[in-house]
Structure formats: structure tokens, C-alpha cells
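Box S2. Input/output pair 1.
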Amino acid sequence: MNVGVPREIKDNEYRVAMTPAGVHTLVEAGHTVLVETQAGASSGIPDERYRVAGAKIVPTHAAAFGEANLVVKVKEPLPEEYDLLRPSQLLFTYLHLAANEDLTRQLVARGVTAIAYETVQASDGALPLLVPMSEVAGRMALQIAAHYLERENGGAGKLLAGVPGVPPGEVVIVGGGVVGANAAQISLGLGAHTTVLDRNLERLRYLDLVLHGNLTTLAANPLHTAEAVARADVVVGAVLVPGARTPRVVTRGMVANMRPGSVVVDVAIDQGGCVETARPTTHSHPTYVVDGVIHYCVTNIPGAVPNTSTVALTNATLPYVLELANRGFEAAVGADSALARGVNVHGGCVTYQPVAEAFGLEYRALAEFLKRKSTPTTA
């Protein structure tokens, strides 16, 4: 199979979807890997390392798409890439379609088979391809917040750790999943008083056992959330509903009650955001202010640390890429239920129900296509 690895073109997206080690594994298995020139440069990976690993370096974006049966990316295709997609082509990347109607309709109209990293889901509910970037984004959220709390960056001029005789900052993390746990770990390490809200009491019990420091856990409900947000110097939005649009659990009224110079980092923004005042931003223009509160809502936070992120992502995605390349689409998703759950669009239809519901589109279960494919015809 021809596997294409294009250069990412999203604003300041420095990651690349495949490391040389991943390329080497695919080439050893008999596949051709087409890497667009300079695709890995911003992650510190020159073309020569890909070439040594066995990749074919192609000169253009169009070539990385056009010659590939399977296109492996980091972020969703942008409008200028839509015409590069073709029927029956496999696209494997972060898609977050429930927050992007235009891309959803484009993938349907073009007959692409689109598999979303974020909805590949094991039978126990784990999201193996979302975890590594959630770990990065959760940890980065606190260093970002600390930066914007500095007075020269428009913040309240507070040190999250405090000093003897001065209390530490207040960090409130809404959501106790992978992003929330990693944000809490860094927050506690900095010395801030950290509050984690979640609806799952078992998750709160777990976090209470494994996290150490100045930690408070609260059952998430509108009153607890409002009270916690009102006293926060930093709010981290870390709510996740796999594959669906994130509910807005922090209202504009709650944000208005925060102190001027406080900071909101909504990590959930790529699924629509869990803060009502959140709207997508970019690394070029990362922040804006609402009611005196700084909002950081970059949709590709891990892109700022591409060397770490690229390696972590390939570690997780490579087994699935290899499965698709070795078996082909139908056999791979037929044998791996986690991968099958990742299929969002196939055969001109939406095959992931939360995405179909988000935009009022027809939903067709992937199993219908696979069954039809395997059913013998009679003359």
C-alpha cells in the first residue's frame, strides 16, 4: 500500500504524522511511504532521516495525497486540501467532526473513508490515540496559564506557587479525564491549590488517591462549578464526550464572576469547547479577552511542542496504520473493533452517530457496509 505523509498546513502546526521509525516499520512490511519534503523539519526531523528509513520524499503536497491509498495526518484537512481528497481514499487523522460541519459534508461528498484518531475506542472505553496528545495538552495548559498570568502578558500578576507568606494561586480544572489529570499533576507540582470537578465519583476517588498536594475534588454540578470558577485564577476546560460536541458547562455568567486578569485555557475547544465564551484561536493569535478574563483556546495545543508530540503520537498510531496497510480497510476494521469505532465517514455516509446527530445528517452503521461487502451475490 502507498502511505502518504503530507506536511501539516494548519496555523503553526509543527507536528508530523510519522517518525522515521514508523516509516522504517512500514517499509519493512513491504509498503511505500511517501513523505512530503520538509514535512518533519519543524519536529526536528530532516528529509534525510526519512530517506534513510526508506521513505520516498515527494516534492509537493499534492503528490503526498495523490499517490497515496492511505493518507496519515495529524490534523483535519483544511479547505485548500479538499480537492486533494479522492473517492475510496483512506484518511487517518484527528478530525473532531462534531465541531466541523463543512469538513463533514466535504468528506461525505467526496466519498472518502475517514477514520478519526479521537474516536478509535477500545471495548473498555479507552481512547488510545487521544491519550498521548491529551497528556501533552493537559501538561501544557498549566505552563500556558502561568505565562498569561504574568502582568506583562495581561494577567493578574500572580505566581501560581505563591511564596512564604503569600497564598498560592487557585487552579480549577473542569473534567477529571486524561487532560484533567495531567493538568492537575502539573498544577500541584507548581504548588497551586488545585480543584478538580467531575461527574464521575469513582474518577474523583482515583484522583484523590494518586495525586498528592494541595488538592480538592468536587462533584461537578452547576453550583459547585460556579463557586469554584468564581475564586479561580486559572480555569482549565477538560471536558470530553468522545466524538461528540462538548457541553458548555462553564457559562458566560461564571466567567463574568472571575477576577480581571484571570486565565481560561479551554483544552476542549477542538470539540467545540466547554466554556461558553470560548472560540477557536491559533498559535499566531492565541488569546482574547472577555469580561477582563484572558482566554487561550488554541485548537492544536500540542503542536507547540512538536518534537515530543510527534514521537508520542506515532508511538500510539503506528500499530493501527500498520494494520490498515497490511490488511486493507475492510479486513482491518472487521478484525479490530476499536479501529472500526474510529470510522466516521465511509461510502458517502456518516458512520459515527454523534457526528450525524450534530448536523442532522443520515447515519449508516459501518456494519451495514461490511455485511453488504461480505454477502455473496447470486446470478
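Box S3. Input/output pair 2.
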Amino acid sequence: MDGGLTLSYGQSVPPGGESLVHTLRARAEADPLNVIATAIFFLAIAHTFSTALFTDAGRAVQRRHDARERAAGRTPLPQLRAEVLRLLGEVEVVFGLWVLPLIVAMTMKRGWEATTHYFNDTVSYTEALFVVVIMALASTRPIVSLAETVLRRLAMLGRGTPGAWWVTILIAGPLLGSIVTEPAAMTLCALVLSRQFFDLEPSERLKYATLGLLFVNVSIGGTLTHFAAPPVLMVARPWGWDTAFMFANVGWRAMLAIVVSTCAVFLVFRRELAALALRNAVRDVDLPDEDAVGSGAELLPLPPWVVLVHVGFMVWTVANAHHPALFIGGFLFFLGFSRATASYQSRLDLKAPLLVGFFLGGLVILGGLQSWWIAPTLRYLSETSLFLGSALLTAFNDNALITYLGTLVPELDPRLKLALVEGAVAGGGLTVIANAPNPVGQAILGRFFNHAVHPWRLFVGALVPTLIAVAAFRLL
């Protein structure tokens, strides 16, 4: 079939001479499942922008239920409808939920065998699994303490004030992502920010500005190398890009954009950051005692060998990021080591990593069926429009998928390749679904926001850093 093909194929590009509208119409008519899958995908996106409505509705239902139960002299219990609404308000489960109607539609159109073939043999869950493992490892006490110790030395150059911590984390942390990978950098930045900044209760406006800046900086901060940022990783091998190429063409511009964006936002909020320094003391490095495993006993001081072993597990995971059998096997060994050294470990909470993995799994399932319209759209764009189109499409899809589809376009001009990747990473902070590490940051920092992270306020918070990144990539 020459139309928009889905499932295990669908990687064709529009033939020359046809208009984009004609190509998309032909693909939609050739396979109506294309349209159904895209409709479900955009409904899922709309759901992510309305999760706060479900959360508020769930709270209202639970409050009314509790009032009725107390009036009747009974102890209030969770109400089923309220819990369902709260589930629908969890961003991390949105895409996974919308996979269910996709399974129904695909089974009705193609049959169960074709459906299982797509889910089992076509979709790659490696990135989602990697994020689960690296997030769990990066959030352990030894790794967080090591990262915080390094960042503290840099922050002390600014006398260790909340503003100094804020600048240090948002510049050094994302750049670290070019070495430890972006998901690990996001985890470490979010955890240290939560303890050195968000615990100080800044204003909602500053919270959103910080979260948007963090998402943008991490998205572009992994471009100094060819293996750390998912959208770069997708194209590095097919296009022959290495670390020297990435730094010379993208990396130094990303570094400049990170520094300029962080300084610009700092100047806007400098008075509030100074006020935080007066109201609150900088928090202690170590995790609180209640994070200890077991009966609440205090954690023992961390010996260097425990930290080194944790670093070794991180290195193993990053080095084998493309081999799930190896990094998952390593993680199972880590769980045993963590249990054996429980007196040095904080509580290992796997809920957040698993929810983020569930989110990304649903995203790659639904996003993988969008090539029928994204690939030809990219094929018809000029350099500037490709850059802007890539940044825009990234806001509604994982940027790694956008760049991967670019590799399916034959004989793409080198300038267009750079424009595609630069646009994808520049737009990676505009929404929570734009870049794979973003759900990690939201899962860790979401508790500091009223009810939940509002998508539109996140978009506004990320807009200025995004525009600065656009200027760095396009004007320099």
C-alpha cells in the first residue's frame, strides 16, 4: 500500500509532485485506522490539558460524600466515583488509559493477531524501561547526596543562598545530562530543587517559571554529546553524528541558551529569591530520618564504597541503555544490593518511576501510529519551517519520535537534519509530553503545586526559555 500505513509499517514518504493535503487524504482513505488512531491520540492530548478539571471534580465529590457520611454518624471512606475522577486526573496514567480504546479499534479493524503484533513486535519500550530504571537509581540516597555535594560546592560560590542553589541546579544539572543522560539529570535536578528551593515555598509564578526553565534546559542540555538526549540518540547512528559534531553544531549554542535563559529568569525573580534567603535557612544535605528503611532507625553515614557501587550501577545502566536485558538485569542486582545495605539507604519508592514508565509506554504506543501524517508533513517543509514545525509538533508528541521520523525521509539535506533536531530539542519544554524526561520532573515536583501542574501555566513558564533557545539555534 502506498497510503498512510500503520502498525508494523507506515514509513513511506509522499511521492514527489503531490500536495501535502492530497497525500494525507489518500493515506486516510487507504487506511481509516490512521484517522481513528490520530483521533484517539489527540483526545489523549486534550485529556492531559484537562487533568486539573478531573482532580477538582474528584475532590468536590469526595467532600460531598464525606459531609453526608458525617451527618449520618458514619466514618467517611473513599468514594468510588471520586477515586475514578482522581485517576482520570493523574497525568501519568492518561496515555495508558487511552491505549484501551485503541486496542478495541485496532482489533475491530485489523483483528487480534495484527493488534498483538503491533504491541509486541513493533513498539519499542526500551526508552520507557530505561527511564524507570535510571529514575529509580538516580533517586537513591547515595546518588542524590553525591550530586547535592557537588552542586553545594558550586552554590557556595554564591554563598549558598537559595538563589545561588537555583542558578547552580538549573545550569549545571541540565548540562550534566550530556554525560549521565537526560532522564537521570532530570531526576537529580528535580530532587535537589525540591529540597533546596521548592521546600522554601516560593510563589506559584516562580514555581512555574522554574519548572518551565528546568524542562527546556534539560531538553537542550543533553545535546553536547550524541548519546544522552533521546531525540539526538534516534538520529546519531543513521546520520553518522558523533559527540564532536554535536558540540560543534548544537552543543555550544545549547550551553549559551541555558546560561542566558537562567540568568534572564533570575533577574526577573531576583527580589523573591533574595526574600527566600531571608525567610529560610538552606536545608541540610542528608535525607530526613523518616526515609530510613525498617523501624524508623536513623540512617548510618554513607561510606564511600556504597556511593561508588551506586555510581557503578548508574554507569552500567547508561552504557547499556539500548539493551533492556542488561540494564534490567543490573537493576535486579541493584535491588539485592540495596536490601543488603539497607542501613545506608533511603526508602526505595518505585511508584513514581513506574508511573512515568507507564506514561511513556502509552505515549510511544499512540505516538507510533502518527507517522502517516507527521512524516509527509516534515518532507514538505523548508529549513525554517521545518525548524518551527518540529518545535510545534514536539509540544504535542515526544521529540524523539519527531526526529526518528526524520530518519525515514530519504536524502534529507544536512541543514534540514540540523533544523529538525534543533527544533525538536528547543520545543522539548513546552508540555509534559514534549520530552521523555519531563514526566519525571513533574512526578517529583508536582506535589509542590496547587492540586496539579497546570499545562497552560507550564507552557507560559517555558515560553521565554524556548524563545531564547530558538534564537540561539537559528540566529547564531
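Caption for Box S3: The radius of gyration is 23 Å. Confidence is low (pLDDT under 50) at residues 1-15, 282-297.
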